[in-house]
Amino acid sequence: MSHRSQLAIHRGHPLVMPKYLMHWILAALLHLILIGISAMALLPLIYMLLTSLQSLSQVLKGAQLLPDPPTLEAYSFVLTRIPFLVYLKNTLVITLGALMGAFISNTLGAYGFARFRFPGREIIFGALLSSMMLPGVVRLVPTYILFLKLGWINTFLPLIIPAWFGSPFFVFLLRQFFRGLPEDLFDAAKIDGCNELRTLFYIVMPLAKPALATMLIFSAQGSWNDFMGPLLYLKNAKLRTLALGLYAFRSEPQGIPSWNNLMAIAVLMVLPVLILFALFQRYFIEGITISGIKG
Amino acid sequence: MPIAINRRPRRWSRMQRREALIGLAFITPVILGFLVFNIGPIVASLILSFTDYNILSRSPKWIGLANYYKAFSEPLFYKSLGNTLYYTIFRIPLSVILAFVLATMVKKTSVVSIAYRTAIYIPSIVPSVAAAVVWLVILNPQAGLLNRLLELVGLQGPGWLTSPTWAKPAIILMNLWQIGGSFVIFLAGLQEIPTEYYEAAKVDGASTWDTFWRITVPLMTPTILFNGVIESIYAFQVFEAAFITTGGGPLRATYFMALYIYDNAFKFLQMGFASAIAWLMFVLILAFTIGVLRTSRHWVYYGGER
Q1: CATH 1.10.3720.10 domain range(s) in chain A
Q2: pLDDT tens digits along B28-59
Q3: Which of A88, B132, B140, B251 is found 20 to 30 A from B223 (Cα to Cα)?
Q4: What's the CATH code of the domain at B138?
Q5: With a threshold of 0.90, does the pTM exceed it?
Q6: Is the domain covering A83-252 a CATH 1.10.3720.10 domain?
C-alpha cells in the first residue's frame, strides 16, 4: 500500500530508552497486573475450597487460611447429616426434565423460523427477540398465580414445563446456525425424498451439534443455578434443590458459623459446573458471543 | 388456475401453503410458550396492577390507580428506588469499564492470555447462591478473608454487609466478580477489529495509548452500548446477592426494588400492589434504555455512517 509507506517516513522521534527495553518493561508490567487480577478472580473459589477442607474447630479459631491438616470432616457432614443427596436428585430431575424440553421445543421452533416461509414470520420472530429485553420481574407475579391456580406449587412442573415451550434466546441461537447451512443440502434432501422431520433429524441436527451443545449447556446451567424458581415453587423441604438447600443451610440459625460445612455444599454445587466448563469451554463462550453479535 | 384481476395480486400456491403450515406447526410450541409464559404474564401484570388482589382471600377488585398512588406515598418505595438507583449508577459504569479494560488487556491470543481469560471468566459460571455464600464468608467483618487481608496492609476493614454504609458497595463488589459475560462479548468485539488498523497506526508511530483511544475505543462503542444496556436491565432487577446475604438489611440499606416486589407479592400476598411496583420498575428500565439509546448517536460510531 503506497500511503502506508508514506506514513512511515514521518515516524521515528528519538527515544531515551531503547524501544525494545521499554516494550519489555511494559509487557512485564501488564503480565504482573494480569496475574494479580487472575489471582483475585480465583481467590474466592480457592478460599471456598480451603475453608471446606478445614475442621470446625479450625474454622472457629478463624486464624488460618490453609487447612491444617486438611480434613474431609465437612464433606462427611454434608453427605450424612443433611439431605444433600436428596437435593442433588431433585436438581438433576429438574435439570434433565427442562433440558429435554428445551432440546425438543427450541430445535423445532428454530427450524420452523429458519427453513419455512409463512406470513408474519419476521414480525413474530422480532417480537420473540425483543421479549428478551423485558425484565423478568414483571412476569413474576402472574406466572406465580398461574402455577398456583394449576395446583403446581410443590411440584417440579413450574421449573420444567416452561422449558418445553421454548425460550427466545435458544430459538435465536439455533436459528442463526440453521440459516447458515447451505441451501443445496436441503434441496438434496428433498430430492432424496426426505420429509421435513427426517431432514431435521438426519441432516440438520448432526451438522448443528455445536449450536445444540451450546443450548444444552446453557439450559443445564440455567436449571442447576436457578434460585428464584425453586424459592417460589418448592416450599416442601423434601423438594429442595441444591441452590435452595444451600440457601436454607445458610439461613438456619446455627449459633456457631459452620463455614466449613457451608463451603463444602458450595464446592459440591460449583464443581459439576466447573467440570462442564472445562470439558465444553468452547460452547460456553460461543453462546455468549452469539448473544452479543446482534448488538 | 384462472387469471382473475380482482383477486389479490399474490395468491399462495398449494406448495407455499403447505410450507407455511408446516412452518407454523414447527413453531407452535414456541408460540404457545411465548403467549402463556411471556406476553400473557406481562399483560396480566399490567391489569393486576390496577386491582386489589390478595390471592388467599378473594378475587381481584378493580381499584384504578390506587396501587400507584400508594407506591408514591410509601417511604419504603422511595427507599428501595433510591437503593436500586445507587446500585445501578455505580454498577453499570464499573462493570462496563472493568470488563472492557480487562478484555483489551488479554486481547492478544497466546497461551498465557487464554489462561488469564479463563481465570477472569470462571467466576461468572458460579451459581448465584454459591457465589453469595462464599462472599458472605469473605466479607465477614471479623474472620472474613477481605478484612484479614486489609489488616495485613494495616487497614481496618468496615463491617461490609453488616454496615448500612458499606452494604451496597459490598453487593456491587460481589456482582462485579461475575462480569465474565460482558468480558467475553467485548473480547469477541475486539477480535473483529481489522488488524490492518493497528498495523497502520504502528507504522504511523502511534503510541499504545493513542491507538487505544483513537482506534479501539471508537470501534468498540457499539459493543459498549450493547453491554451497557444489557447490564442495566439486569442491574435494575438486582435481587439474589442481597436476598441471600443480607435479606435487604442492615437498616434496609440493600432493600432493592426487586426485594420490595418479592415481599409484597409473596410475604404480604399483595399481588396487585406488587404488580404495580413491577410495572414502575419496567417503565424505569424502559426510560433508562431509551435515554441511553438517544444519547448513543452522539458517541456510538457505526463505521463512518454515524
Answers
A1: 83-252
A2: 999 999 999 999 999 999 999 999 888 777 78
A3: B132
A4: 1.10.3720.10
A5: no
A6: yes
